[in-house]
Amino acid sequence: MAVEEAEYAVVQADEPFELRHYAPHILAETVVEGDFEGAGSKAFRRLFDYISGSNTSRESLDMTSPVGQQAGSEKIDMTSPVGQQRVDGRWVVSFMMPASYSLETLPQPDDPAVTLRQVPAQFMAAVRYSGFWSKERYQQHREKLAAWIAEQSLTVVGEPVWARYDPPFMPWFMRRNEILVPVLEPSGDR
What we know:
single chain; alpha+beta; Multidrug-efflux Transporter 1 Regulator Bmrr, Chain A; 2 helices; 12 strands; about 35% strand; globular
């Protein structure tokens, strides 16, 4: 079954790294407390309930990919396709909404802990990897991506986002994971 993904164009590829330009999109997101690996599970049910009809129109929305997690607080400055990110012991976990909706046409969540947010077009440095969803693997790949960003002379403008594309029942060796870091648009002299 095909799942809609965040729309982007690859600006530069240097396997396993990419510089991408993401199209504007809308996120449904929630803030949870907990550890790195447990935050996504804790928030998933809340977001899944929203897309399953726990909203003002009782409408079910298609599942999209990736599910993201990023550190955050109640005020979220970071933008991402979807992510997991930590600030002060809290995590922002989000689902990308189907592109066929606007903020005006999306049903409002019944749960006040779920909010909708428009994300503008943006550039992201990305690294893709497979395997287990663990803090250790996330940190290893985040460090590799940070080194690549420095080599490319890119300017980081936000916190890393941990993006997961596959359901938990996907075998660990087939899971698609990414770390996305917002960066300024590269200058033309690269």
